[in-house]
Write a structure and sequence with these properties.
The complex is a heterodimer. Chain A has 36 helices and 40 strands. By secondary structure, chain A is α/β, with parallel strands linked by helices. Chain A folds into nine domains: about 110 residues, 3-Layer(aba) Sandwich (Rossmann fold); about 60 residues, Dna Ligase, domain 1 (2-Layer Sandwich); about 140 residues, 2-Layer Sandwich (D-amino Acid Aminotransferase, Chain A, domain 1); about 70 residues, no CATH class; about 40 residues; about 140 residues, Rossmann fold; about 150 residues, D-amino Acid Aminotransferase, Chain A, domain 1; about 60 residues, 2-Layer Sandwich (Dna Ligase, domain 1), CATH 3.30.1490; and more. In chain A, a hairpin with a 3-residue loop joins strand 32 and strand 33. Chain B is built from ten helices and 21 strands. The radius of gyration of chain B is 28 Å and the shape is elongated. Classes of the chains: A alpha/beta, B alpha/beta. Chain B: Pathway: Pyrimidine metabolism; UMP biosynthesis via de novo pathway; (S)-dihydroorotate from bicarbonate: step 1/3; Amino-acid biosynthesis; L-arginine biosynthesis; carbamoyl phosphate from bicarbonate: step 1/1.
């Protein structure tokens, strides 16, 4: 069917701020879809409240609304724009839910607006568990025995009927929040009670557990005509029981016979056809490892995280094709953008293995419950491509940026003193570190049969882990031979790993490499296993004879930001993509190195060449040695890229932009302090300590409270405000251990108004796009603060001082490109931190001042002056409107994680709110962040006992018209609450208060400053 | 243990031997992009005698199961993989793929850059390949043996009295070969790199030295071969072949001022007196005077410039012409010479 001519204007609903379970993959899908529709000549209207996205760039859609994702807000836009249709299946669960609500509201019928793609009926059939069950029975597709229960006894009776273990899945919670697996009555009581409480409809599905089955996913495309294809099958390393978002996943499937594969493929296509999916769809299945039995687990009738992974794993752009299907095109009418000579109606053939490993935030939230289950906890993921299971897995491990010791040695230090028995017991509980614990167990001599009994992980995969450890042991024992090094490389060992095992110099390794026929080469990802000629600029390294990547010449390498984690989110991918655009506009070839499958930067059509590789010095240098670029840009890839600067400089690589010296002047505490003293810039007094007695002495000299943190930090990792010697001691024990010899910083804590600026500099002059003022005071990480622009309380004099200091610093370190500077405005203007790179606020400011700051900064890096790019030194004129950036937290996904706002960053995303005044801007920003409507507040405020003791807080809330209740353990949950505040997370009742608020979906605040700032009488209605 | 994969185009891949370690095999090289179903593929009769390369790098992951074979044996001649999975854990597996191949006496090779191989096949098309345990060292020899033969046609006639003409190709025209081909005559075309032994091994009953471009002295390597050939076989030289026969017997050649190019050159047979209109295309000629001191005798002259147009070795079935009796283009006047040559072979069948 040719494309629809009866529709002209299409509305796309984005997925909003990034939360665990709904992340950057929807920016990738959404941008692809918008561009795909515009390519077909449709006018695209986009709504998304997340400014840190490529999809909200002006060139992606014809009109972008950075507005709240609520029904009233969408209705307003719909009435204004009168779109002919809405495409709801690309904005994750958020987009889908909003489409359902809009349809129920009647506005779509009223205005004759059509929903494109998969129908609402289908969505309902796939997502409503009972309806899905009926459909599966009708199609004779096996699903595990299950029953929807509304009370505990009913659940226990059913569990007895089908036998434990059973899975409990609460209805209507995002990502299955609150569910779990019960093996006995006791566990059943705990989990089912929690599930029933958390489910808004007090409804849970109790289901026969098939934990231990092989978990298989198929990404399916189907068009209006009914033609359908499998883009790829994927097999989870972790068996059923762990959310696929938290599992290590391989593509294509590895352990299925052709009969099994075809049986599951048939099942997927049968279901997708019965549902009449039009677009992309994800089908999850379970294969019994010991019989032909299989079960259908679930169907996601939309583009998902798995489809982003499948797109990057195969090169087949699912979201792009799905958008074209939605406007009527069939698969045999759409060109395959990779070959450009064949059609989209084909199944990709892979000639490599893809491994995905999830990235968790437990490095920041060390106290959170690390146990993995049916509810997703990962904030991001890495992907790697290789020729063997071992190679792709180890490359993915190298990409994690988690724990240098474990990533290099594979066996974490803490397992060294554990017995094999302890380890075999420990790995029964899946956690983010289980992979490394399995390596440790193998190292201690555990057999793969023993490990399989503990974990139910298929022995095929375990035998590959065993190959890796055997190679490690072989290298430890014997001489390093050329043959052995080649074998190690085939298993994915990089130079750093080899050198950690066996003392060898780089020259020796080069010599050994030269003795073999096969080397590390680059191969193309082309969807067709080289059957047809392709020119996709998408490469990965592996061992082979032929290198397919020909150096581009006249090129600049951009280092990406790696996996999304707290403190380094999608903002850095946004900046990376803009940097590439500016490089290309300046006439150079742009090469991206990155390993995050969820993002726009790893879409091969963005750059002139994409290397999907770990961001380690080994992998990056291999590419640089081949490409011989003019230089490397590290300013946009967050701390990941900055951390490579020193090694790159040592290797003689030219760093474009601020030099290593400039970077060190701002990052090295001593050099930084010297700079500030030298320039007469006020700053909190401080010192560095490498041991506890030193630290205590410094703290007492400065006077408590003091701010403590490790040097070279990301997102305030490991920062704290401590008030006395006891607290300091408590902080120091883990901090000194994790600092790897780097000193701990101890600074005077100065209460005041926190501000930050991103500056652009050509090395001589400095441009300040705007000053952002934080609603919360110092002591709360800037990423977790509500930021206001233009500043609401600063005097002109203070602003001038800020700009003057920023200019001084920029000039002094010869900043070229971007820098982020943070201030405390108190009795005077203090500088507290400088980040020698693009920061998290770049997309937010770019969208407000309507300047592509990352692109402008790249032009400066490439040698232009401020004047040449049309920027005047000093502060950019402030707008009349007010803009607010508000943080978004994923506390509900991370039980046990600290919640009280502190110098350690906790938010996973952000949104933007705009208005004619602060009240309106806050109102708009708080919808998708704190989920509160400040124009329609009703009910009491529930405070923790600690917060209820703050008289000025209580006084202000009363003045603002709230009734106050104080929480005490075990109290009956009040029905009508405006919001909850618990600014501490130490005691059991404080933790319980937050947990209860989250499960009852009551807005929850975790800092007094936020509440005091937002609920001022003049700011709320 | 190493294994060698040698392609028809000369490319060699070295890998690890698996499957039947000893077996060596030749076959047609093809690739498949299926990521599952290696057992079905290998036992599919339509892959009979083919060497199958898998583009997916990990083959053998789930072993070999009962009831999956598509015929009672492995049909493929050999298997090429990037990695052969050694350990198998699938509950249905009765034996690993490697053991299955050993049992079926089918050789395999692993550690190959199969993507590079696929691209070679894509570029050059399906080709022949050999899987061997040693690098093909005699290959230059064997290669030359194989490569000297450019084409061969067998007589359609009665097999008993078959003549076999070996045509030494210095740039042979199709029609020379076609003019020889007839019932009772096999024709094999070989390159000038052929040694006397190479030609003897083909058991010819006559040898034709073809036409070709350029200076005959460039082929001085082949002159000694001719000297041996004329002692052993009926020999017929055309154009460049005529000049080479002269050189082989001590006569000289020279570069003509502007040569003979056309289809209207009159040539007089000095023995019969007959004059033919011939097709000619040459820039060098045999020095008539130099023939005097050789065992050869001039048999024909160009009517206009008196250049040497024909030679013979008296007492032997050895002769040559400067013109092109095969014509194409040109008059067919002299086609009878091919009949004469074949008749000579009948008569002198036992010369060697």
């Amino acid at each position: 069917m040719p494309k629809r001519e009866d529709i002209k204007k299409v509305l796309i609903i984005g997925s909003g701020p990034i939360v665990i379970g709904q992340a950057a993959e929807f920016d990738y899908a959404g941008s692809q879809a918008c561009l795909s529709l515009r390519e077909e000549g449709y006018s695209v209207i986009l709504v998304n409240s997340n400014p840190a996205t490529i999809m909200t760039d002006d060139e992606i859609a014809d009109k972008v609304y950075l507005d709240p994702l609520t029904v009233p807000s969408l209705k307003k836009i719909i009435k204004k724009e009168h779109p002919d249709a809405i495409l709801p299946t690309l904005g994750g669960q958020t987009g889908l839910n909003l489409a359902v609500e809009l349809s129920k509201d009647g506005i779509l019928d009223e205005l004759g607006i059509e929903l494109l793609g998969t129908s609402l009926q289908t969505i309902n059939e796939a997502e409503d568990r009972e309806k899905f069950k009926d459909l599966m029975q009708e199609l004779h597709q096996p699903i595990p025995d299950s029953k929807t229960v509304y009370d505990l006894q009913d659940g226990i009776d059913f569990a007895h009927q089908i036998d434990y273990p059973v899975i409990i899945r609460p209805a209507y919670t995002l990502g299955g929040t609150g569910g779990g697996i019960a093996h006995n009555d006791d566990e059943m009581k705990t989990i089912l009670n929690r599930g029933l409480t958390m489910s808004p409809s007090t409804e849970c599905l109790v289901e026969k557990s098939i934990a231990g089955f092989k978990e298989i996913e198929f990404e399916v495309m189907r068009d209006h005509h009914g033609s359908s294809i499998i883009v790829t099958g994927m097999e989870n390393f972790d068996p059923v029981g762990i959310h696929t978002g938290d599992s290590i996943v391989f593509a294509p499937t590895q352990t299925l016979t052709d009969k099994e594969y075809q049986r599951l493929r048939d099942a997927s296509l049968t279901i997708v056809n019965a549902l009449k999916i039009e677009g992309g769809c994800n089908v999850q299945l379970a294969q019994d490892p010991n019989s032909e039995a299989y079960y259908v687990i679930e169907v996601n009738p939309r583009v998902s995280r798995s489809s982003a992974l499948a797109s990057k794993a195969t090169g087949y752009p699912i979201a792009k094709i799905a958008a074209k299907i939605a406007v009527g095109l069939n698969l045999d009418e759409i060109m395959n953008p990779i070959t450009q000579t064949t059609f989209a109606m084909f199944e990709p053939a892979l000639d490599y293995v893809v491994a995905k490993i999830p990235r968790f935030a437990f490095d920041k939230f060390t106290n959170a419950d690390r146990k993995l289950g049916t509810q997703m906890k990962a904030t991001g993921e890495v992907m790697a491509i290789g020729s063997t299971i071992e190679e792709s897995l180890l490359k993915a491990v190298q990409s994690l940026e988690l724990d240098q010791q474990a990533q290099t040695d594979l066996i974490p230090t803490y397992t060294r003193n554990m017995s094999m028995g302890d380890l075999l017991e420990k790995i029964k509980t899946p956690t983010d570190y289980r992979l490394f614990e399995i390596f440790a167990a193998i190292g201690k001599g555990a057999t793969i049969q023993q490990i399989n009994r503990s974990t139910q992980i298929d022995m095929y995969f375990l035998s590959k882990l065993e190959n890796i450890i055997k190679m490690q042991q072989q290298m430890t024992d014997g001489l390093l031979s050329a043959d052995m090094v080649l074998k190690a490389r085939k298993l994915g060992f990089n130079d750093t790993m080899i050198k950690a095992i066996h003392h060898a110099t780089d020259d020796e390794l080069v010599k050994l490499d030269k003795m073999e026929d096969q080397h590390l080469v680059y191969k193309m990802v082309d969807t067709c296993a080289a059957e047809f000629e392709s020119t996709t600029p998408y490469y990965y390294s592996t061992v082979g004879n032929e290198n397919e990547s020909k150096p581009l010449g006249n090129s600049i390498v951009v280092i990406g930001a790696g996996p999304i984690r707290i403190g380094q989110g999608v903002e850095f991918d946004y900046a990376t993509v803009h940097c590439v655009k500016a490089i290309q506009a300046a006439g150079y070839n742009a090469i991206i190195i990155n390993n995050n499958p969820e993002t726009v930067s790893t879409d091969f059509s963005i750059s002139d060449k994409l290397y999907f590789e770990p961001l380690t010095i080994d992998s990056v240098m291999n590419i640089i040695n081949l490409e011989q670029p003019i230089g490397v840009i590290v300013e946009f890839g967050g701390q990941t890229a900055i951390n490579l600067t020193e090694d790159l400089t040592k290797h003689g690589v030219s760093i474009l932009g601020t030099s290593l010296h400039g970077i060190e002047q701002t990052e090295d505490r001593h050099q930084f302090e010297d700079l500030l003293i030298d320039q007469n810039i006020a700053h909190p007094k401080g010192n560095t300590a490498t041991n506890a007695p030193e630290a205590l002495e410094i703290a007492n000299k400065l006077g408590y409270p003091v701010l403590v943190r490790p040097s070279f930090v990301l997102g305030g990792k490991g920062m704290a405000v401590v008030h006395n010697d006891d607290e300091l001691n408590e902080y120091l024990i883990p901090a000194l251990k994790n600092s790897h010899g780097e000193p701990i910083l101890i600074d005077q804590y100065i209460p005041g108004t926190e501000c930050e600026v991103d500056i652009l500099s050509d090395g001589n002059e400095v441009f300040v796009p705007g000053i952002m003022e934080h609603l919360e005071g110092a002591g709360i990480h800037s990423g977790d603060s509500i930021a206001m622009y233009p500043p609401q309380t600063l005097t002109d004099d203070q602003k001038e001082k800020i700009v003057a200091i920023a200019t001084k610093i920029g000039k002094q370190v010869h900043a070229v490109g971007m820098m982020n500077i943070q201030f405390i405005v108190a009795d005077e203007v203090y500088v507290i931190e400088v980040n020698p790179r693009a920061s998290r606020t770049v997309p937010f400011m770019s969208k407000i001042v309507k300047l592509h700051l990352a692109q402008l900064a790249t032009q400066l890096i490439l040698g232009k002056s401020l004047a040449e790019i049309g920027l005047k030194p000093g502060l950019h004129p402030e707008p009349t409107k007010v803009y607010v950036k508000a943080p978004v937290f994923s506390f509900a996904k991370l039980p046990g994680a600290p919640t009280a706002l502190s110098p350690e960053m906790k938010s996973t995303g952000e949104d933007i709110g705009a208005g004619d005044n602060l009240q309106e801007a806050l109102h708009n920003a708080l919808f998708d962040s704190y989920h509160i409507d400040t124009n329609h507040l009703s009910g009491d405020v529930l405070l923790s006992e600690f917060d209820a003791n703050n008289a000025s807080l209580v006084g202000q809330l009363k003045e603002s018209g709230f009734g106050i209740q104080t929480y005490h353990e075990g109290m009956e949950w009040p029905t009508d609450l405006a919001f909850v505040l618990s600014s501490e997370d130490e005691t059991a009742d404080q933790k319980q208060l937050v947990a209860n608020a989250l499960s009852h979906q009551v807005p929850v605040f975790t800092a007094q400053d936020t509440v005091m700032g937002v609920f001022q009488p003049q700011l709320i209605k | 243990m190493k294994k060698y994969l040698t392609l028809e185009n000369g490319d060699v891949f070295v890998g690890e031997a698996c499957g039947d370690l000893g077996a060596e095999i030749d076959g047609e090289l093809v690739f498949t992009t299926s990521m599952t179903g290696y057992q079905e593929t290998l036992t599919d009769p339509s892959y009979k005698d083919q060497i199958i390369s898998f583009t997916y790098p990990l083959i053998g992951n789930y072993g070999i199961s009962l009831g999956t074979n598509q015929s009672d044996t492995v049909q493929a001649a050999a298997v090429i993989v990037k990695e052969m999975t050694d350990q198998v854990f699938h509950y249905q597996s009765v034996i690993s793929l490697d053991a299955f191949l050993k049992q079926s006496k089918v050789p395999a090779i692993s550690g190959i850059d199969t993507r590079q191989l696929t691209k070679i096949i894509r570029r050059y098309g399906t080709m022949k390949a050999s899987l061997t345990n040693q690098p093909i060292v005699e290959k230059p020899e064997a290669d030359r043996q194989a490569s000297i033969i450019k084409s061969a046609t067998l007589s359609a006639g009665d097999a008993k009295d078959v003549e076999h003409v070996v045509v030494v190709d210095f740039g042979v025209k199709d029609n020379i070969v076609k003019s020889l081909q007839r019932p009772g005559v096999d024709v094999t075309v070989v390159t000038p790199e052929s040694t006397f032994e190479d030609i003897v091994n083909l058991h010819p009953t006559g040898v034709l030295l073809s036409n070709g471009p350029g200076d005959p002295t460039d082929y001085s390597d082949f002159v000694p071969v001719i000297q041996k050939l004329q002692d052993n076989f009926p020999l017929f030289g055309i154009c460049l072949g005529h000049q080479l026969l002269a050189l082989a017997n001590g006569a000289k050649t020279y570069k003509m001022t502007f040569g003979h190019r056309g289809i209207n050159h009159p040539v007089k047979n000095l023995i019969t007196g007959d004059i033919y209109i011939t097709s000619q295309n040459h820039g060098y000629a045999v020095d008539v005077d130099s023939v005097k001191d050789t065992p050869l005798e001039v048999t024909a002259l160009e009517v206009n410039d008196q250049t040497c147009e024909g030679l013979r070795y008296p007492g032997r079935p050895v002769f040559s012409v400067q013109y092109h009796p095969e014509a194409a283009p040109g008059p067919h006047d002299a086609t009878k010479l091919f009949d004469d040559f074949i008749e000579m072979m009948h008569v002198n069948g036992g010369v060697h």
